[in-house]
Amino acid sequence: MNKITKIVTTILVSLVVLTATTPALAAVDWGLSYATNVGLGTHELRSVAVNVIQTLLGMLGVLALVIVLIGGFKWMTSAGNEEGVSSAKKTIAAGIVGLVIIFFAYAIVTFVFNVVGGSLR
Q: Does 16 score more than 60 pLDDT?
């Protein structure tokens, strides 16, 4: 009987502890107003998307220019070696093709956003 009493007491105490919660308050601050306090603002999704895409295309443009510079460095340090010059020409061509693709991607993004919603900014 002692064992059953301990089990029942444990269950009852557990139920009391688990169900004795504090009352919920109706006006809970979920932190939704914190964004304006830290300077996040309320921009449209379109302008945020344009900023992200333009930033990514800018970074890709810098990367393509770095590839062209690496190709030029390879060409200068090849010392007349035909394999080195050929590799450098391929690297420079890849960088220029990348720049052309990035330029057309920027033009397409600009066109689409101008058609869909007016100006980019």
A: yes
pLDDT digits (tens, 9 = 90+) for 47-67: 788 888 889 999 999 999 999
SS3 of residue 40 by DSSP = coil
Residue whose token pair is 């980019």: 120
Cβ neighbour number for residue 40 with a 10 Å cutoff: 9
pTM for this model (two decimals)? 0.59
**Is 95:64 a contact under the CB 8 Å cutoff?**
yes
Cα 76 to chain centroid distance, Å, stands at 37
Give dist(CA 41, CA 24) in Å, integer: 31
User: What are the distances in angstroms from CA 62 to CA 52, 55, 68, 120?
Assistant: 15, 11, 10, 22
